[in-house]
Amino acid sequence: MAAQRKARHILAVAGGKGGVGKSVFSITLATTLVGMGYRVVLIDLDLGGANLHTYMGILGQTLSLSHFFQKKVKTLDEVVISTRVPELKLISGAHYLPSMSSPGSSLKIKLLRHIKALDADFIVIDLGAGMDLNTMDFFISSDIGFIVTVAEPAAIMNSYRFIKGTLFRKLHGVFKNHAQLAPILVSMAEDSAYSDSLMLNTFIEKVMQIDPSAYPLVNEISAEFRPCLVLNRIGTVESNNLVGSLISHCTTKYNVQLKYLGNLPHVKEISSFLLDIPAFLRSSSGSGFFKSLKSIVRKFLLDIHDTNVVAEKLQLLKVYDDDTIKRIGEIIKDLPEGKLTQTEKKLWQLRLYFKPTEVVAFLLCKGIKDNIFFEQLYTIE
What we know:
- The protein is α/β, with parallel strands linked by helices.
- Helix content is 47%, strand content 11%.
- The chain folds into two domains: 9-301, 3-Layer(aba) Sandwich (Rossmann fold), CATH 3.40.50.300; 310-373, no CATH class.
- α8 runs antiparallel to α9 (200-210) and α15 runs antiparallel to α16 (342-351).
- The N and C termini lie close together (10 Å).
C-alpha cells in the first residue's frame, strides 16, 4: 500500500473535561458533513474510554482499533465499519486493551500515518477528555481542532489548561532539538503550572536574546494555532460574556486566538437517545440541536483552504519520519552561502519540524532537488 495521505481534512474534537458533550458533538459533526455529500470516517480515539459505538447503537461484537493495535489487521481500512447513518463510517474503540491507553511514540506515529491514509473527505477524531499527552499530540496533528466546553467553572478552567498544554506540545515539537531553547521552554512550562500561563511572550523574549532567527517561526506557530471553540448546553444570551472571557484570557495569557464557532442548546430529551444519537438528530426534539450544529459546520467550512494542492500536484513527500527530516536538514546545512545564509539555514532547519512540506517546496523553488523530496512507495507496517 502506498503510504500517501488520502484524507483531505482531519478534524479533532477535544474537551478539557469529561461530560461536556464532546462525543455527541463528534457524531453530529460527522453526520452533518455526510448530509452535505462528503465522505466521512468517524474515529474513536478516546483510548481507554471509547463509547462512540455505544452512542451509535452498535452493541454487538465488531472490528475495532484493538485489532489494529494487536496487528490482527494490517491497515485501518480493515476495521472501518458501517453505521446507522448511511455513508458514515466508523472506526470503533471497543474491546479495550491496556496497551491502547498509552501507545508508545512509534505506535502513535504509525496510527497517525494510517489515519492520514484513509480515503475520505473528512476524518473526525473524537479524543479523550483531559490533558493526556497522546490526546494533545493527536489534537495538534489535526488540520482543525475543536474544543467543546460547557458553562461550568471546572470545564472552563480545564479548557484553558488544555489550550496551554497543546500550545506547549506544539512549540516543544518544533524546538525539541534546539540546544538552548528546548530546556528553556520546558523549564518555563513547568513554572507556569503555578501561574496558569504559558508565558509565550516571555519565551519570545528569550528567543530574541538567544536566537533571533527563530522568532518568525515562533510567531508563525502562535498565529496559526487557532483552536475552534464550541459552547454546549448554553443559550445565546449566556454565551456572550463567556465567549468574551475565554477569548480575552487566551489572548492575554497564551497569545492564542480562539475561533468561536457558536453554541449548542441544552436539550433534556437527549438522555432518552444515548443508545442511538442518530435517532435523536432525526427527532423533533433534536432538530434545534442539529440546526445549530449545521451553522457551526458552515462557519468552519468557509475557512478551509486545501494547503496540500501544490504538494499533490508535484507528488511531494507528505509523511516525514525523523530520518527523513534529518537528511533534509543535512541538505540545507550543506548548501553554499550563495543559496542561503547561515541564519536562513538555521530557520529552515527548524521549520522542518513544523512544516516539512513547505520547506521542501521552498528548496525546489531555489532550484535544489533531491529524490528524498518526492513520494516513494513503501509498505505500511
